Each structure stands twice: as C-alpha cells, then as structure tokens.
Amino acid sequence: GAGRAVLRAVERPELVPVSFAQRRLWFLGRLEGPSATYNIPLVVRLRGALDVAALNTAFTDVVGRHESLRTVFGEADGQPYQRVLGVEEAAAAVELRKSDRERISADVESVSAYAFDLESEIPLRAWLFEVDADDSVLVAVVHHIAGDGWSLGPLARDLAVAYAARCEGVAPGWEPLPVQYADYTLWQRELLGDEDDPTSTGAAQVEFWRDELAAIPQELALPFDRTRPLVASHAGDVVELAFDERVHRGVLGLARERGASVFMVMQAAVAALLSRLGAGEDIPIGSPVAGRLDEALDDLVGFFVNTLVLRTDVSGDPSFADLVERVRETDLRAFGAQDVPFERLVEVLNPVRSMGRHPLFQVALAFQNAPVSDLVMPGLEVEAGPGGTGAAKFDLSFNLAESFTGSGEPAGISGGIEFATDVFDRSTIERMAGWLTRLLEQVLADPQRPVSRARILEDTELDQVLKGWNDTHRATPGAVLPVLFEAQVARTPDAVAVVCDGVELSYREVNERANRLARLLIEHGAGPERFVAVALPRSADLVITLLAVLKTGAAYVPIDPDYPADRIAYILDDADPMAVITVGDSGVELPSGTVRILLDDPATQQALGVRAAEDLRDDERRAPLHAGAPAYVIFTSGSTGRPKGVVVEHRSVVNLLAWADRRFEFGQLAR
C-alpha cells in the first residue's frame, strides 16, 4: 500500500538479527535441544544415468546462491544473530550411501529425522541413496529456520538448472537473486515499524489481533486416547485423507456460491467436525500463509511463511452455508493483518504457556498451493515431492491439496492428517478421516442443514452407539431380598455377617433374630404395601430390623435419629408409616399419636423371645412376597425444597447388587 517500505539489498550491520519466525525456532532449539520436529525433507527419485559429480557440484552451487542455506546462528548478549558462511566454509556436499528397494523407505525416513545443530552447521543436508544401477533417491533436508514449504520449489528448480549446467561442464547461468534472506530480515523490521508508534503497521495489526483473539480458548478439548504429557515429544504419524472429484466439485460450487475459497469451505468442515467431537463452539485453527509479501522473494529459499490464527464461531447451531459465510468474514479480516509474525503475537498476547502443547491453537489446516514443480534434469526421469519426518508440531494438522484433470476439471482433494502420537492412536485418526468425509458429503448435499444434524458415524459405529453401548440387559435373580439373604444363610450359616462395635453376628444369628422380629411386626399389621419407619442408631440391631421389615413384605423408611425434629415429623407425615421402630434412648422426638415399637423395652424383648426363629412362610404374611413390591422409601436431602420420598422396589435393589457383584467381584462371603 502507500508508504510501504521497499524491499531491496541493503548494507548490513555487524550482527544481522534473525527474523521473528527464526527467533522462535532458535529459542525452541535451545530449550528442547536438536530434533527433527522442524525438518522439511525434499525427496527426489532419479531414474537413469546420474552424473554424481555434477550433482554434488550443483548442490554446492545452490548453497552458494541462497545465503539462508549457509547460515549458522550465533548468540550475543542473549540474542541470536545470523552468520552467513562463505561457500567453502559451508562445505556443502551430497553424502553417498547404498540402499535397496526393501530398505529405501526406512533409509529416507531415517535421514529425514536428522537433528541439526544450528549453531555450528548449516541448515541443509543431502544424501544420495543408490538403490539400483539406474535408480537413485536424493534426500535434501532443510531446517525450517532456513526454509518453508514454498522454498522446496525454488530449491528443486535451482538444483535442476545447476545440474543441467554442470553436466555441460559450465556454471549455471541463472540471474542473480535481487535480495537475500538477511535483507528480508532487516526489511521486515522496517515494514512493521515501531509498535510504540500507533500509526505504524505493526502497532495497528497487533491491536487488531489483540481484539481478534481476545478470550481465545487456551486448549481445544479433542478426543484424545491418552492424557497430554507435560512435555510434548513431537512424535507424529500421518493418516491419508482423500475426497473424490464429486466432493471436490461440491466444495468448489459452494465456495463460488458463497464468495469463498476452497480453503474456507474446508476450514468450516474441519471446525464443524471438531465442534461435533466436543471441542466447543469457539474453534481456533492455525493456517500458514506464504508470507512472501514482495515479488523479490518468490524465488528465494527462506523462512517466510507466517501462521494466522483463524477462529471459527460454531455457536447457535448454524447451517453449513452460514458457517462458511462466518469463516469467510473472519478469514478476510485476518488476511488483511498478516504482516505481524505469529511469533510476535505470542509474545504480545502472552497466553498460558505449556511445553505439552502449541500456544493459541493446537489444530492446523494447510492447503499446499506451491507444490514442487515438475523438474527437468538431462538424461533422468525425475519425481520430486516433500517427505515425512515422523514428527508433529500440533495435535492435529490437516494438510490438503487440490488436483485437476488436464482440461481443468476437479479431480479430487487429497492429503493427510498429521497427528501427535503422544495423545492419539492411529485408529482414532483413521476414524476421524471417515467422520470428516461423511460430514462433508452430508453438508454439501444440503448446505442449509444445521451442522449439528449432519451424520458423521458409519453404520457400524452408529449401531455401536445406539445398541452396543446401550445393551445393558443382564439376567438378574428373580427373587426378593429376604429370599436371597436366606439362601446365603443356607450356604454359610456360621460365617460372620455383621460386625459393629465389637459385636460379631453370624448369618444364622442375624436371620433368626430378624425372623422373630418379623413375626412380631406382622402381628402389629406390617405387610406388603405398608411402610415401617426405622429410627435407630448405627448398630447390629439396625441391620436386623431392616431385614425383619423386608421379611414381612413391608418397606422400611430409614430415619436418622440426628435429624431435626421438624424433618422427622415431615417424613413421618409424608410416608405415613404404620409404626416406628426405635429405642428408648434414641433421642428421637416422635409426633403424638405415632405408634412406636421400642426394641429395648422389656416387654418387646420378652415377646421376641417366644417367637419362632425359622424362616417365615408366605401363609404367615398378609400377602406373598414379590419383586415389584416396595423395599424401602428414601427421602432426598431437601436442599432445593421439601424432602421428597422415593420408593425403591425389591427388583431394583437386586439389580443394583447383582451389577455391583459383577463389577467389583465381591465373592460369596462379601458383606
């Protein structure tokens, strides 16, 4: 725009500062040590008669052409700086190695993970693997501090031109580059200006991002398979992702209809999927932009790419068409403020830092719009492309590219999902690829469909959710609690059943005492569909009394003697029990007119002593026992109003106990 600083070759200071992007990678290198996390491999398959000497000289030519490839990084007063080496000092050379068809993939993966020492060695290494007499693989690995994905294009083209010239015995005749990376570094600072000057580009864009990213989620809730480690290993893997020409055509059509780009439609789809998977309604996604803000940078190898944080608002259950429009508006605002480096935003916004995750976003989306060009090298069939490093910078990174037929028709969108193996299993990401595909097919078929209603599960997954995980049917004993207890008495009559305050009672003793009390309660009118309140302190007698009530067929209403008098009165009034079982010194205040049975009353003890101790028969009860009869009534706390009584049937209690026995494996003698 008007007044924009002009990029040109300039006089350099004694210590050339690093760019903002380089500064962050230098810092991470010092913090984490050398690693392959930020490697960018270029893999070139060469079939035919290869002139190895010409290739090696051409490699030196390329390193001489691009200063960024022969730069090491020193430190002065705690600050990094660039030191450009001479071509001879850089000592760039292609390392020759033997390989074969079985080992070549592993060999490529191994060297792609080379760990650079940025302080002492240039950020470029190259290996040539001889697979067969006329089949070789060249692997050139650039550290991200010296290049980016776009840089692979000029790097490969320059290597091809230099190789062709060296095969003819001459130096490459390319035009000198108008600027070098060090010139860009100085220009970047001039372009942004002083952030203390509110009229500067840097100040205006920083303020924009401060507002744009206010209250951004510190971390997305993703469907992890494992807890995030405190320190990320950056180990990664990739699952392939492909959309056919039909989906591609639909994406293009919707993009045209909404005045958006293919990238924006795919961003909306990824955000919708993540929201559906529980990430929330505010989805920040990181996306690289070329950052080559001047045409003088187009053919230069260097770290120019910038990362924009694009927030997607999925709130309010929007249709997919509406979501694409939201994405379009947000992205266009962001693209207008792409001069400020992401690294500077991290410094300014100062989010909560963690060595376990990336700041401001953990999911990235990239469209590869600068693929490595078809290369022409004399006497060789050349196939070039980016390689993998087995590393992951983010939790998830969706990397995509469009394909077209010779006539320009859409041929599909393909790429992969790179994922951090610290937190994800490969199988989870494979399913995620399927979920994204199905979601995209659904919303493209009907863009007015709310994204929340788009189906993402395949048939087997849907069946698992609706049926498999809900198949909780289990066979439970078709009996009531007293019968089950009596069966246990028959199996282990002398085993200890109750222990309380130094008192131990066997199953036989508990059962006989409960039988005597049950017969006494029946004489007082206890039976099925009636309630008996029990207001006893914790004791062996409490257990026996509850069992006795159940043996009569009645349901017990437990009352804590420490309850306030008004709560006890309310429960008794609401439940309307036929009697209250308690003891004389319980301290329980019972409303007048309440029938009470005092267990410690001598008359009660005498009456119990003459009652039969064997198990009750149905003809002794007012009605037979059955599983649908109430077993007890439990009252809520009343913290949100008056206490409410909940009636629990025998079959419900039996079901709970059967589940607990299966889950915790209590065993026969568990109490």
Q: Could you characterize what this model shows?
A:
The chain is an alpha/beta fold and 671 residues long. The chain has 3 domains: 1-192, Chloramphenicol Acetyltransferase; 206-294 and 301-370 and 388-457, Nonribosomal peptide synthetase, condensation domain (Chloramphenicol Acetyltransferase); 481-664, Rossmann fold (3-Layer(aba) Sandwich), CATH 3.40.50. Helix content is 36%, strand content 21%. A 5-stranded mixed beta sheet has the order 5-6-7-2-12, with helices on both faces. A 4-stranded mixed beta sheet has the order 8-14-13-11, with helices on one face. It has a 4-stranded parallel beta sheet with strand order 18-17-19-20, with helices on one face. Helix 8 crosses helix 9. GO terms for molecular function: catalytic activity; phosphopantetheine binding. This is Non-ribosomal peptide synthetase. One of its GO terms (biological process) is secondary metabolite biosynthetic process.
Classify the secondary structure makeup into a structural class.
alpha/beta
Mean pLDDT reading = 91
State the name of the first-level CATH class of the largest domain: Alpha Beta
Could you list the spans in which at least 5 consecutive residues all have pLDDT below 50?
none
Termini gap:
82 Å
Number of helices: 19
The name of the CATH topology of the largest domain is Chloramphenicol Acetyltransferase
Describe the protein's topology.
Layout lengths: L15 E2 L2 H13 L6 E10 L3 H14 L5 E6 L2 E6 L2 H4 L3 E5 L5 H9 L11 E9 L2 E9 L8 H16 L13 H12 L8 H12 L23 E8 L1 H13 L4 H18 L2 E8 L16 E8 L6 H16 L6 H8 L13 E5 L12 E7 L9 E9 L5 E11 L5 H20 L13 H10 L12 H11 L4 E5 L2 E4 H17 L7 E4 L5 H13 L2 E4 L6 H11 L3 E4 L13 E3 L3 H8 L20 E6 L9 E5 H15 L7
Helix pairs in contact: 2-5, 8-9, 8-12, 9-10, 9-12, 15-16
Pfam family, one: AMP-binding
GO molecular function: catalytic activity; phosphopantetheine binding
GO biological process, one term: secondary metabolite biosynthetic process
